[in-house]
Design brief:
With about 325 residues, this protein is an alpha/beta fold. Helices cover about 45% and strands about 20% of the residues.
């Protein structure tokens, strides 16, 4: 037997063995505890999205499924942990959009490649940043805000929950779309941003609807728009930026489920089927609508395509706004 043929034979045997091992794994899956990692501190939107999925998987499979926080490093610590975990279906990531799309634009070096090192499972849902104004501001729409900003170039400030957040990107896209000049004031989270917005120290801001809506209902802040392409099913009374003079304007925070790359397809398919059934259930939809998240549930391929389109979108926004990677 020639050397070339021996190498081919050894390779064929290895591939066959891997396929049999993957099939055996899928047939017995799950056989032990599963972890859903969130790359943020407990108490945020990622945990709120992940916890009911973990509870339902536990009920359906009879194996413990728990949510684990591994925060820090601009959400890259927890994401890198999942990317480097064994590809056996027992460690998953419930991500927001930053760690799997925006960080590619914001950082020159990352410990993982979110396209190469992660296997998409399903897009769970989206929630749009909400554009707010202090009641003292003489604006009740995006059109009026744009007119005021053009009349007072450079005089208006807008708050976000932090540099590189969906709220920040939404503000910068507004500036380039409408050709207005507003200064970005980044905060470390929604709570301090809202305090200054309610106090009138920063008259305009973009935050998540989960924390903003109570202040809108109380009259302490005024909602001008949501930044998604369509109105949110949770807040249908609030118009979009797109329908107020910016067709195609679309910035959302989104949540997805991921596995380490090279997870066996049978395991991937089983997880996709179960999680999509959970998130599309009336019970889960109702729970998430309470925090203004519109539920989707997709195929792995659809999430992968969406991720790539989001990366390209944020690259374009960053280039136009002069946001350079660190």
């Amino acid at each position: 037997m020639t050397t070339t043929r021996k190498r081919w034979w050894r390779g064929a045997v290895a591939v066959a063995a891997a396929g049999l091992a993957g099939a055996a794994l899928a047939q017995g899956y799950p056989a032990k505890t599963i972890r859903i990692v969130v790359a943020y501190p407990m108490g945020g939107g990622a945990e709120f999205t992940a916890r009911p999925i973990a509870q339902k998987l536990t009920e359906r499979w009879g194996q413990p499924v728990f949510v684990e926080s591994r925060s820090g490093g601009s959400a890259m610590i927890g994401t890198d942990y999942v990317a480097k975990s064994p590809p056996d279906g027992y460690t998953m990531l419930l991500s927001a959009s930053s760690e799997v799309s925006m960080n590619v634009v914001l950082f020159k070096k990352m410990p993982y490649d979110p396209v190469r090192d992660l296997q998409p499972v399903t897009l769970v849902g989206t929630t749009p940043p909400i554009l707010l104004a202090h009641p003292s501001m003489p604006v009740k729409s995006v059109k009026e805000l744009v007119a005021l900003a053009r009349a007072r170039p450079g005089a208006l400030n807008y708050a976000s929950i932090g540099t590189g957040s969906p709220q920040h990107f939404a503000g910068e896209l507004m500036k380039t779309t409408f050709r207005i000049d507003m200064a970005h004031v980044p905060y470390k989270g929604a709570a301090p941003a809202l305090i200054d917005m309610i106090g009138g120290h920063v008259p305009i801001g973009l935050v998540a609807p989960t924390v903003a809506v109570p202040h809108v209902k109380s009259g302490r802040l005024r909602a001008l728009a949501v930044t998604s392409a369509q109105r949110s099913a949770s807040m249908p009374e609030i118009p979009t930026v797109a329908e107020q003079g910016a067709p195609g304007f679309d910035i959302v925070q989104w949540y997805g489920v991921w596995l380490p790359a090279k997870t066996p397809k049978d395991v991937l398919d089983k997880l996709n089927g179960e999680i999509v059934r959970i998130v599309q259930s009336p019970e889960y939809r109702q729970r998430q609508q309470e925090v203004a998240t519109d539920i989707i549930g997709t195929s792995p391929e659809a999430l992968g395509s969406f991720q790539k389109s989001e990366i390209e979108k944020y690259r374009k926004i960053a280039a136009a706004a002069g946001i350079n990677p660190e």
